[in-house]
UniProtKB/TrEMBL annotation:
Family matches, as PANTHER family: ALLANTOATE AMIDOHYDROLASE, ALLANTOATE DEIMINASE-RELATED
Source organism superkingdom: Bacteria
Name under which the protein is recorded: Zn-dependent hydrolase
Species this chain originates from: Roseibium aggregatum
Keywords per UniProt: Hydrolase, Metal-binding, Zinc
Length: 413
């Protein structure tokens, strides 16, 4: 492989990622806990901001705690690069955080090499990407996709309102609609991320170039039954909320078979049972359903089938039903010119790369509605993500980060 004239400092990148992951580490599980607007999340952002200030970058933040660090001309549009540092509960060390660290490392390399961009480069660490409150708050704020109505009703799985979580951190949720970047202020967006799937590792390919991103529909379903004694209530006279949940869950493969594609995903990931007692028939089940596909038409077919089946299940079990849409992110085709440029650069530097869809949601898909966006993947060991076992090999990371660096130098010239 022909090495680029300018390349990243791998040890410096490792040190930066280790610094991020000093926040929210759980000794018992080996996972990381930096949910959006948690103390660990805020502390990590403040630490990252200090690192960028120490690099002599112009650092700023907005009303949702998006971090920005600008290098190059003080005026005019920018090339925005980065990812997020928040995590799911008990998440891994690389998801999001690696992309934020790679973006800063690439700017450090440019500065050291005396490469001054003609178009400013802005490193971004987006806020609340993992969807604790639904959606991707940070990038949606940048692109003006957050409405006051959504802010007012957004809540997490425990019922905490987004507005309350922000106010506890001294932030004003009413400012969100005014925090959008002006049209034309971001010339392009580029993100590096772990694949979070097994395709690259299984094929022995070090680089993935995502050309499209699955949409994400987040529904909250509530089955309302009757809590009752498990010993005295006959089986045929129960209104068992969990039995309804179980029947719907078992139907998921049939829904995908009938209405879906190879890119379809339906997941029930969070369940709350009430009263949640061994000797009581569950009177209420509240659960999440995350639905994904690369086709919006298929997503709507899947959703319609799922909701129809849920209604039928409720009727069979004597349950009330309530279905609430927490968020809807449409599938996105990423910018074809950026994808083609990344392919050419990979080939020029002897890197094997493959075009592929992204089954997971990323800031790049939100940014694509605002400016051309590109997304580079590096392999995930065993395809595992959102878990303490999440890992990517540093040899692969180095190749992906150097491709990212070359793309950034070229795009900002």
């Amino acid at each position: 492989m022909r090495r680029p004239a300018v390349k990243i400092d791998l040890q410096r990148l490792k040190t930066l990622l280790d610094g991020v992951n000093s926040f929210g580490f759980d000794d018992d599980t080996g996972g990381y806990n930096r949910p959006g607007f948690s103390k660990a999340d805020i502390d990590c952002r403040e630490w990252f901001a200090a690192q960028m200030e120490a690099d002599g970058l112009s650092v700023s933040t907005d009303c949702v705690m998006n971090l920005f660090a600008r290098y190059g001309p003080a005026e005019g549009p920018c090339i925005m690069v980065g990812s997020h540092t928040d995590t799911v509960v008990n998440g891994g060390a690389f998801d999001g955080s690696l992309g934020a660290c790679v973006a800063l490392e690439c700017v450090r390399c440019m500065k050291e090499a005396g490469i001054v961009p003609q178009t400013a480069v802005e490193v971004v660490v987006t806020s609340e990407e993992e969807g604790r409150f639904g959606g991707m708050l940070g990038s949606q704020t940048i692109t003006g996709q957050v409405t006051p109505d959504w802010v007012a009703q957004a809540s997490d799985a425990e019922g905490t309102l987004l507005s309350d979580a922000m106010r506890r951190r001294g932030l004003d949720p009413l400012e969100i609609p005014q925090a959008a970047r002006p049209p034309g202020s971001v010339k392009a967006f580029l993100e590096l991320h772990i694949e979070q799937g097994p395709v690259l590792e299984r094929s022995g390919t070090p680089i993935g170039i995502a050309d499209r991103v699955s949409g994400v529909c987040y529904l909250e379903v509530e089955f309302q039954g009757i809590a009752n004694h498990s010993g005295t209530t006959p089986m045929d006279l129960r209104s068992d909320a969990f039995a309804g949940l179980a029947e719907l869950a078992v139907a998921i493969p049939d829904i995908i078979r009938d209405k879906g594609t190879g890119q379809s995903r339906i997941t029930i990931g969070h369940v709350t049972l009430t009263p949640n007692h061994p000797h009581t028939v569950p009177g209420q089940a509240v659960f999440s359903i995350i639905l994904r596909d690369t086709s919006e038409e298929i997503m709507r077919l899947l959703r319609a089938d799922l909701e129809a089946r849920a209604t039928g299940v409720a009727a069979r079990h004597g349950l009330g039903i309530k279905i609430t849409e927490k968020s809807w992110l449409a599938p996105v085709m990423l910018d074809p010119d950026i994808a083609a440029r990344l392919e050419v650069l990979a080939q020029a530097h002897g890197l094997k790369a493959v075009r592929m869809p992204s089954g997971a949601g990323h800031d790049a898909q939100t940014m694509q509605a605002f400016c051309p966006a590109g997304l580079i993947f590096v392999p995930s060991r065993n395809g595992i993500s959102h878990a303490p076992e999440e890992h990517s090999d540093w040899e692969d990371i180095e190749q992906g980060a150097n491709l990212f660096l070359q793309a950034l130098i070229e795009m900002s010239a």
